[in-house]
Amino acid sequence: MTTSLQRIARIVLGALAAAAFLLAPTALLSSPAKPVAQGCYDGVIPWNPYLKSCSLPSAQPHVRGAAPDATAIIACHDHPGCLSWYVNGGP
Fold first, then answer.
1. Which structural domain, as residue segments, surrounds residue 84?
2. For residues 59 and 71, is the Cβ–Cβ distance under 8 A?
3. What per-residue confidence (pLDDT) applies to 15?
4. Which pLDDT belongs to residue 44?
5. 38-to-30, 34, 72, 86 alpha-carbon distances in Å
6. Residues 48 and 81 in one domain
7. How much is the CA Rg of the chain, to the nearest whole Å?
8. Are residues 15 and 57 in the same domain?
9. DSSP 8-class letter at 54
10. Is residue 26 located within the same domain as residue 39?
């Protein structure tokens, strides 16, 4: 009789431990994301130098033929022609 009770107790405790193991990450990760100011994003998106970045200094208005800003240089890294398109106005 005691062995059957021990088996049932082990199964119940195992099921509870499994449920806790599966539900704990969901409870811990359900915090809402921090709001970001509109009009900019964190970091730099590769191959898109026209988007405004919150983590880099604000860029001056883009003038055709002028030197590229930091966002354009970082975004165009390893993409042939990207800086040329940015500086000269694109195709």
1. 34-91
2. yes
3. 92
4. 66
5. 23, 12, 20, 23
6. yes
7. 27
8. no
9. S
10. no
Q: How many domains does the chain have?
A: 2
Residue 62 has pLDDT above 60, yes or no: yes
Q: Are residues 17 and 47 in the same domain?
A: no
**Residue 60, token pair as written in the block:** 């001056």
* Percentage with pLDDT > 90 across the chain: 7
Distance in angstroms (rounded) separating the CA atoms of residues 15 and 6: 14
Q: How confident is the model at residue 31 (pLDDT cuts 50, 70, 90)?
A: low
Same domain, 22 and 43: no
End-to-end CA distance of the chain: 83
Q: Are 71 and 53 in contact (CB under 8 A)?
A: yes
Whether 55 and 89 map to the same domain: the answer is yes
